[in-house]
Amino acid sequence: VKTITFEETFNAPIKTLCDAIFFNKNFQNDFHTSTEDIKVNVGDWIPSQDKSIHRTVIFDTPVNAPSMIISMLRLGPTITCRLEDDLTWSSGEDSFTVKSGLFFMDIPGVNQDVVKVDINYNANKVSRSRTHVILSISCEFITRIWGLTGIVEKYMEKDAHKSFEKWIQLAERHLREYQQKIDQDDDDDEDQVTSIGSSPISVTSSTDYQSVLDHNNEEQDVQEEDDKKSVSSLLQRSYTLASLRRDLRQVRALVSKTEVRVKDLEQEYSNHQLDLTVNKYLQRVNQLYVQESNHSQQVQDRLTLSQQYVDIILAKYRRSSAIWWFMGGSFITFLFSFILPLTVWYIKRK
């Protein structure tokens, strides 16, 4: 097994890194673009039964392998790959793991029985604003291919170094953009709060200065009351926006669970329809069985009657045979007891 390991520490909270890198389809598309991949299809995260979430990424990648491998495997200019990602958070949400399996979909004879490629991301919280990421890529040849194993491992190591360098650069850029977007949203909320000010009150000259002053004080009190209401409303709105941001992940997870439940219901409905069809078929088979049983009973009754008829005929035949045997025996007895002595007497007389 050939395993290559890389490490990097990012100046970002662990949840921010997860959102900006793994929940951001733009990052995945940019990364595959940087590696000259085409026809990239990044699937949505779907909850699994083992408290993890799963997604599938399919893309075509250019073939940059040695010419000997290209010739032996009869590869084209690109090959279609499939990544199966599984993301799991720790119980304390201080770390998460992304395990990816890479499959080559259109290379004859290359599958899990021949070669197995695994990519693992382990992210651990260092502090509130720092996250350490360990990336490991392993290639295991289940069936050793003489003359190719060493070449493929060297090529994989070289290509993995280039890909990880691009991955780090894009990760740092997307983290900066993601953090700037969050800061901009917070600044917009603060600007809405601080931009509220009292409207200027013009004081005109008047002989009754105290009257004008009282009027200004009344308007100022009214304006301050309006400002307080506006500030309270904006603070409430800011609090609501913050709550919405915090609940966004839960909403996404709920939507994903709902989609899974809908698929389960569709599967249950399909199974129910199949059960109805099977039940109808079983009822029909049961009816045919009853009909065949009745027919078999009728045939059995006819066979019984035929057997009885045969027995009667045999009995009559036996009686007839007995009579004929008796008559034959009587004739022979008569022949030997009367005719034969008479014949002898007649001959002697002559």
UniProtKB/TrEMBL annotation:
<keyword id="KW-0175">Coiled coil</keyword>
<feature type="domain" description="VASt">
    <location>
        <begin position="1"/>
        <end position="179"/>
    </location>
</feature>
<feature type="coiled-coil region">
    <location>
        <begin position="241"/>
        <end position="275"/>
    </location>
</feature>
<keyword id="KW-0812">Transmembrane</keyword>
<keyword id="KW-1133">Transmembrane helix</keyword>
<feature type="region of interest" description="Disordered">
    <location>
        <begin position="182"/>
        <end position="209"/>
    </location>
</feature>
<dbReference type="InterPro" id="IPR031968">
    <property type="entry name" value="VASt"/>
</dbReference>
<feature type="compositionally biased region" description="Low complexity">
    <location>
        <begin position="193"/>
        <end position="207"/>
    </location>
</feature>
<feature type="transmembrane region" description="Helical">
    <location>
        <begin position="323"/>
        <end position="347"/>
    </location>
</feature>
<protein>
    <recommendedName>
        <fullName>VASt domain-containing protein</fullName>
    </recommendedName>
</protein>
<dbReference type="GO" id="GO:0016020">
    <property type="term" value="C:membrane"/>
</dbReference>
<keyword id="KW-0472">Membrane</keyword>
